[in-house]
Amino acid sequence: MLAVAALALTGLAGGTSTASPDDPAATSSPSVPAPVPDPVDWEECGSGLDCATVEVPLEYTDPDGEQIPLAVTRHRATDPDRRIGSLFINPGGPGVPATETVASIDAANDAGPYSPDVVARFDVVGVDPRGVGESGAVRCLTDEQRAEQAAEDRDPTIPGGKPFGRLLLDARTFTKGCLDHQSPAFLASLSTDNVARDLDQVRAALGEEQITFYGASYGTVVGPMYATLFPDRVRQMVIDAPVDTELWQHDPLRLLDEVAVSNEETLDAWFETCRAEGAEVCAFGDADPEAAFDDLIAALEAEPLQVPPVEGLTPGGALDGAMALEGVRAAAGNRVLWPVLAAGLLGAQQGDGTFLHVMVSNVTVTPFGGPFATLQEPHTGVRCADWPELGRLPEHRAAAKKIDARGERLGSRAAYSALNCALWPAENEDRFTQELTGAGAPPILVVGGRLDNVSPHHWAEAMTARLEDAVLLTREGVGHTSYRTSGPCVDDAVDAALIDRTLPADGTVCAVPPGTTRPPAPQAG
User: Fold this and answer.
1) What is the pLDDT of residues 108-124, one digit of tens each?
2) Which domains, from first to last, does the chain contain?
3) pTM listed for this prediction
């Protein structure tokens, strides 16, 4: 079964200048046009890959002032004679390095992040957003502090969880560390509107008049921001697993609350499937997986399991209830991992916490996608630059009490997940606050999952309604993001949109095989 777990975990894992100062969409405060950057100076950095650095203004209100470097990687179109242009991608997070996603493209592998047809027709371009990856990744903790915080219960509502006062002390340590490693000006500049402006600088450096864009999860905030600021520079856009941009911009605590509800819904779907498939398939719980789950979490909090290291899978350590919940949260939201979740819970019930520890070590995610342990600091930096209203501690405590009152199994962690923003030491005074409508851009394809543990389906509906011209494609079933994970119905629709600019009928629904807790059959040979 460890081989099954490892297999499943491995499978997851000549331009113009910017808008004029008279353009009200340019920024929420006066600005001047940014200079056209120098052409990109590429260096080959792998099979079909080129890497470069592009300098952009730290502040677009002072475009001739301090410049910062952005890491850019492209995968060259494999059919250059039929090349359409550049496909810019943002894989989410915030905090997932886009350059790593592009570098993972293997033209000989049909199972890559983008279809062979897309890889043939586009230069796929990944720009690490400022503060992410090789573009000056935000650093706020020492390795020792990071390991300590990752190992401790961040949820004050469960036995053994840190009380609010300790969480607040951790937040003070975190934010002080951010200032120790970065300037306030850099931290204040990490907002999504600057990320969109940076993409346009890279577009100009590439000499492209327009870009095609695919964004997933948090990338669905970047895409509409770009389409709103620079609608005439969009050739085509697809956004997958959309975030509700109105909540992102103006009500982030409610946004996190809705993520918590979605977490719970996907776990409930796993419980229902486990119960329906019966003990012969899903042995955990003996027809009552909810009660068995609650008993297991309580038992792990009372007496954590000690897990030995497994090379390539987990460093080992103690598995308590809070850590188990982190692994469950990630696995329940991905139907591919449902068999591993069943095996992990059963193993822990029988005294072996290895599978659950593997899930925590490999697929535990931030609220908007990506490994939490490696993305926490960049993730926090972008969110706090975008969420300056979160400076009042009573609001965090009120939100936490609301979530706790629901009595959910997974929801309570969201209550204090933005606590660092309440103490954020860099004020973003000019973030873009206008509605993200993409007015003037071509019709945008919005892909939403019916049951998504991070982006609830009503966010996709809200996004479609908010954009001036958009079409909604719904994927049935459980999962966060749909392209390249849900079968030909979704993949063909996304490819047609990106390549041919042909969109499906609004309201199209794609079925996927139902989730199961049954382990996959062994492969012959």
Assistant:
1) 888 899 999 999 999 99
2) 15-136+192-250+439-510 (3.40.50.1820)
3) 0.91
